[in-house]
Specification:
By secondary structure, this protein is α+β, with helices and mostly antiparallel strands. It contains 3 helices and 12 strands, in the order αβββααβββββββββ. The strands form 2 sheets. Strands 1, 2, 3, 4, 9, 10, 11 and 12 form an 8-stranded antiparallel β-sheet that branches. A 4-stranded antiparallel β-sheet has the order 7-6-5-8, with no helix packed on it.
Length: 185
């Protein structure tokens, strides 16, 4: 009997350590809105690798913002997520430029380091707005949604250049809807 209790205790400790390790490195988030269409859709559920390291151009990331969660935002959340939501929004965007890069948006086109960026993932042919940043500062990155006409992203002063410390992690997998289950590019 004593041996069986010890085995149960070992199993419980191992399970708790494994659960803690997994949740430390991996988390999930739900997509709200259409700013990442056609890559991501409203209500997609994503798996995030919780690391600020190795974030590259083209990666899809989850970002902490200073944007306050309002009552309309809370309506979309279930009771558990409402309690976990905090006071500010997290957004899902694609990294377009990293520290040291230059970026220009002109006449509907995006130029990275002086060369037109070819983006097969963008909804539509043109990117609205105009912008020129000679050099992305150290520790910052420029992000945009794939649905450029509706995306609130680095082109807007409310988001601006994203501090690397505000990155929650890189989106690595979509698990819902099951019909689109798989790794994201």
């Amino acid at each position: 009997m004593k041996k069986m209790i010890i085995e149960w205790m070992k199993s419980i400790v191992i399970a708790l350590l494994l659960a803690f390790t997994i949740t430390y490195f991996i988390s999930g988030t739900k997509v709200y809105g259409s700013s990442m269409y056609p890559t991501l859709f409203h209500d997609d559920f994503l798996i995030i690798f919780n690391s600020k390291k190795n974030i590259n151009r083209g990666d899809i990331v989850v970002i902490n913002t200073d944007l306050e969660i309002n009552s309309k935002d809370l309506e979309e959340l279930g009771p558990i997520r409402k309690k976990m939501a905090g006071n500010t929004k997290k957004i899902v965007k694609r990294v377009i430029a990293v520290e040291g890069d230059s970026i220009m948006i002109s006449e509907g086109k995006v130029y990275l380091n002086g060369k037109e960026l070819k983006e097969e993932y963008v909804n539509g042919d043109l990117t609205n707005g105009s912008l020129y940043i000679e050099e992305i500062p150290k520790g910052k990155m420029f992000v945009m949604g794939d649905n450029r006409y509706v995306s609130l992203d680095s082109r807007d002063e409310r988001i601006g250049l994203v501090d690397k410390e505000d990155i929650v992690g890189k989106v690595i997998f979509r698990i819902y809807p099951f019909s689109k289950f798989g790794k994201l590019k």
